[in-house]
Amino acid sequence: MNPEPGEFTSLLTPEEIAALRAAGRPRRWERGTTVMTEGDTSDWVLVLTEGRVKCSSHTSSGTEVVLAIRGPGALIGEMSSIDGWPRSATVAALEPIEGIVVQDFPAYLREHGRVAVLLMQLVTEKLRDADRKRIEYGAFDTTGRVATRLIELAERYGEKTSTGVRVALPLSQDELAGWTGASREAVSKALRSLRDRGLIETGRRRVIIHDLEGLRKRAR
C-alpha cells in the first residue's frame, strides 16, 4: 500500500494498517464501475489501495456535481458507516481500483482510539475544504476555478516531464465541469483561454501544465 500524503492510511502505523486489513477483505473494481451509490443505505467503508475514484452527486435536473477525487490511502464511505444515514455521494472508479472493504468500521475505531481521533481531524479537513470551494464559487470566475482545480490535480497526481507537469488522471471535460460548478461549454472556453496564454496544453483526458506559477497567478 502506497498512500498519497495526507490520506487516511498515510497517518496510520503499520500495526493499525495490519489490523485494518484483518478487519476487512480485498476487492477490485474495473474502470467506470460504480462503487457506492448516493442514497444507498449500506454501511461498509472502502480503504482505497490502488487507483483513483470520483465522488459525485446529481442535482434534480440530472447534472453531475463532482465533490472530490480520491486516490490510494483514502477512506471512502466513513460517514454512512458512523451515522447510519444513506450515502451522500456516488463513488465511481476513474481507473481500475483495488481496496479493502470493512463491514464493521465502528468496531475497528473502538479498538483503535488514536485512529478515531485522526478520523475526526480528516473529517474537519474535508469540511474546511468544502468551505473553501464554496468561497471559490462566489469569488472566482470559471477560468479561475478551472485553474485552481488543475493546480490541485498537478500537485496531487502530476508527473514531471521535460515540458512541464503532466496530469495523468483520466478526467473528461464533463467531469472537470462538474468539479468546478460550471457548464461544459464554460470549461471548454476556460481551457482555451489558458491554452492561449501558453499555460497549459490539453489532449484527450490529459493536461500538461507548462507554467505552474503562471497558472497559480491566474487562479488568484
UniProtKB/TrEMBL annotation:
UniProt cross-references to PROSITE patterns, sorted A to Z: CNMP_BINDING_3, HTH_CRP_2
Record flagged with keyword NADP: no
Any one GO MF annotation of this record: DNA binding
Protein name: CRP-like cAMP-binding protein
Domain of life: Bacteria
HTH crp-type domain span: 140-213
Keywords, alphabetical: DNA-binding, Transcription, Transcription regulation
Tagged with keyword Transcription: yes
InterPro entries: cNMP-bd_dom, cNMP-bd_dom_sf, Env_Response_Regulators, HTH_CRP, RmlC-like_jellyroll, WH-like_DNA-bd_sf, WH_DNA-bd_sf
Stored Gene3D superfamilies: Jelly Rolls, Winged helix-like DNA-binding domain superfamily/Winged helix DNA-binding domain
Residue ranges constituting the Cyclic nucleotide-binding domain according to the UniProt record: 8-93
Listed GO CC annotations: cytosol
Pfam families listed in its UniProt record: cNMP_binding, HTH_Crp_2
